[in-house]
Amino acid sequence: MAETKKWAMVIDLDRCTGCQACVVACQAENNIPINEEKDFLSRRAKQWIRIDRVWEGTWPNVKARFIPVLCQHCENAPCEPVCPVYATYHNSQGLNVQVYNRCVGTRYCANNCPYQVRFFNFHDPEWPDTFWNQLNPDVTVRSRGIMEKCTFCIQRIRRAERTIEGRDGGKVNDQSLKAGNYMPACVNACPTNTLTFGDINDPNSDVSRRARDPRHYKLLDHIGTSPSVIYLKKVDPNAPEEEAH
Amino acid sequence: MTTTADNNRDRVQITVDGPELNSRMVTEQVSRDFFNVTRNYRWLVAILGSVFVIGIIALILRFLDGFGVSERAQWGYYSAMFAFLLITAGSAPLVAVGLRWTKNHWRRPFSRVSELYAAVGLLTILWFLPLMALLPPLEGRRSLWVSDEFIGVPLWWDFFAVLGLVVCGLTLLVLSAIPDMAVLARHGDDGPRARLLRSISGFWRGSQSQWNYHRIGLTALGAFYFMLLIMVQTMINVDFVMSLVPGWKDSIMPAHQALTGLQTAIGLVLVTTFILRATGRYKDFIPMESFWSFSKILLALCLLWAYFWFAALITFWYGRTPTELNVLSTFMFESYRIPFLLNFFFSFLIPFLILIWNPVRKSVLGPTLAGASVLIGAFFMTIRLYVPAFGIEDVTGHTLKAVQPAILPDVLDIFIILGGLAGAALIYLLASRIFPILSIWEVKEGLLYQRVRPLLRSKFLVLGKPD
Amino acid sequence: MQEGKILGYRRINRDLLRGVFENPVKYWAIVLFLGLVVLFAVGAAGFMVNRGIGVTGLNRPVFWGFLITNFVFWIGISHAGVMLSAILRLSKAEWRRPATRAAEVLTIFSLMTAVLMPFIHTGRPWRLMYWVFPYDFSRGIWPDIRSPLVWDPSAVNTYLLSSILFVFIALVPDLAVIRDRSSGIRRIAYSVLSLGWRGTPRQWKLQAIAGILLSALILPVFVSVHSIVSWDFGMAVSVNSWHSTIFAPYFVIGAVHSGVSGVVTVMIFMRWLFGWEEYVRREHIDALGRLLIVIAIAWFYFFAMEFLFGIYGQEGDELATRSLQIFGHPWGWLFLTFIITAFFFPVPLWLFRNVRRSFLWMTITTISVNVGMWLERFIIIVPGLARKQIFTQSWYTYAPSPIEIMIVAGTFALVLMLFLLFAKVFPLIPIFDIKEGQILTDEIKVGRRRVPAVIREE
């Protein structure tokens, strides 16, 4: 196991059915307000993970393709240097972290995010009354005026680390963590095992193994952001080879 | 024809401490130097001629080495020399054009010095011809041209643009010199040159309407030349540098090159005028104040040069896409680090440090040194841009995948460059024997509008503003 | 160029201090009206701060809209002051004299207004302390100097302070003139402000040196401010049409274009308001008109280059941005309006001497330029965001909400109101400068014609 961890995710597009379970799980885990029709119409809906749908081919031979897109936790994240107050920065475990308390809401990071995975709280979040008791106590409810985005469920990682360190005297590795249920909510929810999460610096972890798949590619690689989310291309035996995105 | 009384009439000072001058002195001095071919001049022509011939021989050897699209890497220095000629000599007439618009009085002695550089365009257009065969096809790469099916893109468009520039420059030169040629034709003996002048300027009577047409023509041609030059530099820059580097999209670069052109234009004019003064000619008509006034513009241009450069640098530095990083490494920080540093020092740092210093700026030598430095800087700028661009093998695609290794000049390159410089100087020298190097009519006009008068307890220069 | 009459010093003092000592009804009527508009805008801004940015028309791809456009616009207007005073002072252009103070004051107030925009535009404006004033040293988190948004306040603050200094240095002799003509508390205030000015040769010399030095030093600041504003956009690698190396000079020249136009408008306005026919003369707007032709053409060159290289890239999102700008609805109409009002309408007109010398036409054309330049910023900022990356499937458009429109309208009223209030306290045309100009006027005889001339200052 490598000394420092670098969290990464592998998304196998061959397995994705576009069922949106990850979206719902994320919504519940991370205290994201419920997106109503008006939010979608005004383009202010918040989905830390979203399923982009791409149509391939011409009618009638059309196929729907799905790409789950979440914060790519780029090594070289364009959103980070533009924040004047260090509200978003890179931590030692390869996570692109958003510090809600520091954020003043310039929204520059969102402008500079090529993946459009940063969300702004245009209003204070609201839930139906009965839902308030259902919020996740581990996750901050974001007030209006600040940015938010996928954290790779950092609260779960931290909880798992604390549990393991408390129990075994501190051997935190892929195996022991797996027992601690540190997986992000979307990974847990995925019925087809599309998403894999783990430490990519550990060559034996699931995520490293799957990342070595020859189908792997990264979104918008030419911008040079070097994302931590790795996609595995959908291979359609009936279709000619084509560019990923 | 001349009498002493005539000589002393209408004498005015154009600087507070300067000598008293009148218009007859202008004509006399210019015509004396114009018709008197000295031995030094002949020697200079001979030396420059032989260097030029050596350059041509080197060029022929280069042709034998290999010529064609696939061999273009070894033509990088040749293309850089073309760009240098275009940037410097091509821009030089802008000094006359631009300052004429602002109706300065101090620019008057510099006008013809700058316009004469239009003659060097003859060399520039010849120098361009081989380059046309070196450009890879537009297929599969970005280019300025919408489609490669467009007739004659990019080569013939480039060629006719450069040709148009040269023709326009020469027209400007002839038009501007016609009144002077008419004057000189009357003053010279009946040699072949005087006859040539007479045949060109025979129609000139100096009537009111002729002067009006002359003024309007100069303004219009000048504006046209300006626009043409900017366009040519953009086209050449994109076709011969940027589009040869896959993925390189640098919108400020043509503007930066145009700016470098303006900088070197002033540099060239200052250096040439300095040499003119150093050989003892027209000292009284080219006062130190003119150099001083130039120095402020040059200082501003040097600061702008650094500003444009920084604007490009910071955008790429911040962007950090693979192409941008590779471009920065290739053109500035790794492969061509030495030309880049020389470029930066000579184009910005040295002239800036010279010119920021008031006493130095207020002299003849100071601005001249800065001008010379700017010329050297521009030379290295063309090298660090054109040589690497010509060295890139695969010009297709949207990304520059690796840092390019540096290409060093060989002996042939050096001789070709020397030959080019000598050729340009030679053409200039020869042209100055057809068109007088001091603009007689402008200097004379200046004598009408400048006076030294007392005010309070001191003397000041009074400048007439005719409109 | 020198058409003015030689006026006595007494007359000059009386005329130019008219704004300070007299209270015309139309003056207060205008101030009152502007104050009302400002009040509405303050209400709108308060509402926005109270309810959140949700009351604007912003959405997920378009996170910056009207207010940032307005910010860039006012920063642009603020460039005129220094451009005119510093450059023309250094180049000793005689016709600058009546224009300098108005231009500088316009700089200060438009800069202050501009700064308001990004502040109220943040999600949590009460947290500005973290950003603009790094007070948070106990936690060891300083603002991130890599962020262009930190370069911004530093550049703007430097510019604001230096232009205030610049105006003040030029004001001191005039303040002494007012001091000598007022009484009571007013006299005390002007005495303090005029720093014991007696008009001794040494004081004049120091004042002149300070003016020249500040002119030279403020020029880099002036260039840096709008460059940095442009880099707010240029640094964004993800927005293809913003990430262009030409942005800095393009924005600066655009700022000068709109700023100098703004100064012309304001000069004609104050000529009308205070009756300064002898001071703001046709020759001045003629000269400014010529300057504007050059600036406009230079601006057009940069505009063309920016656009050309946008297409040159041949990237999908960039092409989509450009086609949205030109063909999309309503952007196509805005684009057409912009290019006509900013360039093709005024510039050909300026080529005519009669237009340049007509106060009415110059008012129309310069206002037209600023309409166009406001739209220019809008067209750069929003379509770039609306068509960010091809793959993200989040293309959208943007329409301002009434709140944003009210705030933008309020900024125009605010600048004009502050400008007029300034005129109540300080003369808008530098008195000493006009007097100096009269001393330096001369004449030269060429043949039988008398040519106006100036004595060259050393």
Write the layout of secondary structure elements.
The complex is a heterotrimer of chains A (245), B (467) and C (458).
Chain A: E1 7-12, H1 21-29, H2 37-41, E2 50-56, E3 63-69, E4 88-90, E5 96-98, H3 108-111, E6 119-120, E7 147-148, H4 154-168, H5 174-179, H6 185-189, E8 195-199, H7 206-211, E9 216-217, E10 229-232
Parallel strand pairs in A: 1-10
Antiparallel strand pairs in A: 1-8, 2-3, 4-5, 6-7, 9-10
Chain B: H1 4-8, E1 12-13, E2 20-21, H2 23-35, H3 39-65, H4 76-91, H5 93-102, H6 111-115, H7 121-131, H8 155-187, H9 192-201, H10 208-240, H11 253-278, H12 288-319, H13 322-333, H14 337-355, H15 358-361, H16 365-391, H17 411-431, H18 440-449, E3 450-455, E4 458-464
Antiparallel strand pairs in B: 1-2, 3-4
Helix pairs in contact in B: 2-18, 3-17, 4-7, 4-10, 4-11, 4-16, 4-17, 5-10, 7-8, 8-9, 8-10, 10-11, 11-12, 11-16, 12-14, 12-16, 13-14, 14-16
Chain C: H1 9-16, H2 18-21, H3 25-51, H4 66-77, H5 79-90, H6 100-121, H7 128-131, H8 148-179, H9 184-193, H10 201-234, H11 247-274, H12 282-312, H13 316-327, H14 331-344, H15 346-350, H16 353-356, H17 359-386, H18 402-425, H19 431-439, E1 441-446, E2 449-455
Antiparallel strand pairs in C: 1-2
Helix pairs in contact in C: 3-18, 4-6, 4-11, 4-17, 5-6, 5-10, 5-11, 6-8, 6-18, 8-9, 8-10, 10-11, 11-12, 11-17, 13-14, 13-17, 14-17
Structure description:
The complex is a heterotrimer of chains A (245), B (467) and C (458). Chain A has helices at 21-29, 37-41, 108-111, 154-168, 174-179, 185-189, 206-211; strands at 7-12, 50-56, 63-69, 88-90, 96-98, 119-120, 147-148, 195-199, 216-217, 229-232. In chain A, 42% of the residues are buried. Chain A is an alpha+beta fold. The longest helix of chain A is centred in the middle third of the chain and has 15 residues, at 154-168. Chain A has one domain: Alpha-Beta Plaits. In chain A, the strands form 4 sheets. Chain A has a 4-stranded mixed β-sheet with strand order 8-1-10-9. In chain A, strands 2-3 form a two-stranded antiparallel sheet. In chain A, strand 4 (88-90) and strand 5 (96-98) form a beta hairpin. Chain B has one domain. Chain B has a two-stranded antiparallel sheet with strand order 1-2. A two-stranded antiparallel sheet of chain B has the order 3-4. In chain B, helix 14 packs antiparallel against helix 16 (365-391). Chain B starts with a helix and ends with a strand. Chain C has a single domain (9-454), classed as Formate dehydrogenase/DMSO reductase domain (Formate dehydrogenase/DMSO reductase fold, Up-down Bundle). Helices cover 70% and strands 3% of the residues of chain C. Chain C is built from 19 helices and 2 strands. Chain C has a two-stranded antiparallel ribbon with strand order 1-2. In chain C, a hairpin with a 2-residue loop joins strand 1 and strand 2 (449-455). In chain C, helix 8 (148-179) packs antiparallel against helix 10. Chain C is globular. Classes of the chains: A alpha+beta (245), B mainly alpha (467), C mainly alpha (458). Chains in contact: A-B, A-C, B-C. The interface between B and C is large, with 40 and 40 residues. Strand 4 (458-464) of chain B pairs antiparallel with strand 2 (449-455) of chain C.
